[in-house]
Amino acid sequence: MIRTLRLIPTLLRVGFVEAVAYRAEMIIWVLATTMPFVMMVLWTTVSESSPVIGQGGQQWGSASFIAYFLSVFVVRQLVSAWASWEINFEVRGGTLAMRLLRPMHPVLGYAMSNLAYMPQRALVTLPVIGVLLAAYGDFISRDVAMWATWGVAMLGGWLITFFVNVAVGAVSFFIESSLKIMDVYLAAFFVFSGYMFPIDLFPPWLRAVSDWLPFRYQISLPVELMTGKLAVGEAWWLIGKQYLWAGGLAALALTLWRAGVKRFQAFGG
Amino acid sequence: MIRVRGLKKHYRVHKRPPGMKAAFKSLFKRDYQWVKAVDGIDFELQAGERVGFLGPNGAGKTTTLKMASGLLHPTEGEVTVDGHVPQKRETEFLKKIMLVMGQKQQLLWDLPPAETYELNRAVYDVPREDYKKRLKELTELLELGDLLVKPTRQLSLGERMKCELAGALIHGPKVLFLDEPTIGLDVSMQVAMRDFIRRYNEEHGATLILTSHYMDDVTALCPRVVVIDKGVLSYDGKLEQLVQRVRPEKRVVLRFSQPVSPERVQALGKVVKHEAAEAVLQISPDAVNGVVARALAELPVRDLNVEDPPLEEVMSELFARSRAEREAA
Q1: Chain A interface includes B289 (CB < 8 A)
Q2: Which one of A7, A95, A265 has the shortest CB-CB distance to B123?
Q3: Contact (CB<8Å) B66/A97
Q4: What is the spatial distance between Cα B153 and Cα B109, in angstroms, rounded to a whole number?
Q5: What confidence tens digit (pLDDT) does each residue in A56-77 have?
Q6: Burial (Cβ within 10 Å: 0-12, 13-18, ≥19) of residue A256
Q7: Which H/E stretch holds residue B253?
Q8: Beta strand pairing call for B50-54 and B76-81
């Protein structure tokens, strides 16, 4: 454990240097995640033509939609992970062999290389955060305790995203490619995470369903905290559920990984 | 150091002929075939040995190395390396070994090799002072110089292979599995790599298994060879004994001061090659002295060499014999 902790700074540093080398690719990826801006335009138009009322009886005006979707963009950038694509590529091509030869758990390597991109991603979100605070400050929480809670929820959101990626990636040990499973997961994620529609606008039964699925805890929970839509007590109850999902998914991912590595064929050379 | 007992690796592979009809059929019914990549082999290596692991393509060499390095799980049998079971992937085991694959890279593609080395230093817990010393030594021996700070993708194949080898040795592994380490390199680079590998073995007492299709690698590095074909061991012993067993005849290479007719050369023995001023004869060991004396007396010989047949020929004859024995069985 101490050895692993000692390793982390080097892994993050090398990952950061690699992220800098791939900066152009990252900018293209960021451009591909601008769906919240599209949804923002759509929903503000809707709210201007007729009142939009959430389940809590609260009205969503165009400013609240803008604040919401700008927050979604920020959260999405900072809870992203793409280990599933890396694992699929490395299992199919056999290059995972080089990771397996090192005295370090490959999942730790994926985690650190994904996290090492965060400073650059944070940089991308800075202008958006600036606009949020300058123009829509009234819709953003000013409570310091809430922001501390937000940090915990962001970590939980990232853990869920990362371990879903590892679990799906590990399925590629068993079938030829598991990326289609990731596509299916993402389709559900777009609907249930609050990425395209605020969960507050869901009918009660669908909202109840989303409470029991992992997606809400990836995007909506941190966004609800940012936009001050949750009381601290309720937030911690949801964070508890979020970490249960993260723990469960971590167990599933590592179990699949352990079983999968035994089937690894190290093709090619 | 390395102990292999009854080691087997069998794969189930999906077989499908080309074409739409076969593709459609495979939607409903898939045909599988079992491939015996390694089928019950035994051998042992002592600490510090250099052993060539030879066989034709698909013989099971790389599969065996991958099992010995913990990448693949055997179907049956066991392998231990310095008392460790590789498949457990214990930290202590992984720190002792390295598998270098000529066709795979561990260097981070878009970063200079120095970044991968620094990563390896941390991952393998190499004390910083030892790391600096070892890197300096490797930089000098392999003449890495400026290569360390150039992105890997901008290195030539030979440069990259040198950097790969340095990266593999940063932690001072006691056991080296080398799978085609000189593939694609030019002749001078191959020689440099061989010299370096031998030196590493001698100075660090490292155990070394090498697979290579370049027989010069094997001749230069491996006093002992293990030959595998279709997953089964067909020879384990000294290289010169293998040559004597398969091709006991000697090669007499004659270079003439002026052209000599084929008939005069044929009078000495079996001619393997004949050009105007050069001929190669294949002679039984007992007849070598007589043939050499006659050649010197009867032909305008400028230069004469007595050699073993090329290892490529020895190996292809060995594989042909194994194939014939299998077909007969």
Answers
A1: no
A2: A7
A3: yes
A4: 5
A5: 778 888 999 999 999 999 999 9
A6: buried
A7: strand B250-256
A8: unpaired
pLDDT tens per residue across span B215-242: 888 888 999 999 998 898 988 999 888 8
List the single residue in A14, A95, A101 with the smallest CB-CB distance to B98: A101
- Return the pLDDT at A27: 80
* Confidence (pLDDT) at A269: 46
Among B312, B314, B295, residue whose Cα is nearest residue B304: B295
With a CB cutoff of 8 Å and minimum separation 6, the contacts of A13 are A116
Both structure tokens of A187: 């389709």
In sequence order, what are the residues at sequence separation of 6 or more whose Cβ sits closer than 8 angstroms to the Cβ of residue B106? Answer: A98, A101, B116, B164, B167, B168
Residues in chain B: 329
Cβ distance A100 to B119 less than 8 Å, yes or no, reads no
With bands split at pLDDT 50, 70 and 90, how would you rate the model's confidence at A267?
low
Q: Which residue of A has its CA nearest to B180?
A: A269
Distance CA A258, CA A245 (A): 20
CB B231 within 8 A of CB B41: yes
pLDDT one-digit tens code per residue, B16-41: 777 777 777 777 777 788 888 999 99
Q: Are strands B224-229 and B232-238 parallel, antiparallel or unpaired?
A: antiparallel
Does residue A170 register a pLDDT over 80?
yes
State the Cα–Cα distance between residues B98 and B175, nearest whole angstrom. 7
Kindly report, residue by residue over B159-182, the tens digit of the pLDDT.
888 898 889 989 999 999 998 888
d(CA B276, CA A235): 93
Residues of A within an 8 Å Cβ radius of B: 3, 6-7, 10-11, 14, 17-18, 21-22, 94-95, 97-98, 100-104, 262, 264-266, 268-269
Structure tokens at A225: 């905290």
Which residues partner with B13 through β-bridges? B33
Closest chain A CA to residue B153: A21
Transcribe chain A into DSSP letters.
-HHHHHHHHHHHHHHHHHHHHTHHHHHHHHHTT-HHHHHHHHHHHHHHHS-EE-TTS-EE-HHHHHHHHHHHHHHHHHT---HHHHHHHHHHHSTHHHHHTSSS-HHHHHHHHHHTTHHHHHHHHHHHHHHHHHHHGGGS---HHHHHHHHHHHHHHHHHHHHHHHHHHHHTTTSS--HHHHHHHHHHHHHHSSSSS-GGGS-HHHHHHHHTSSHHHHTHHHHHHHTT-S-HHHHHHHHHHHHHHHHHHHHHHHHHHHHHHTT------
Q: Which two tokens stand for residue B174?
A: 């006691």
A237: left (phi > 0), else alpha (psi -120 to 50), else beta? alpha
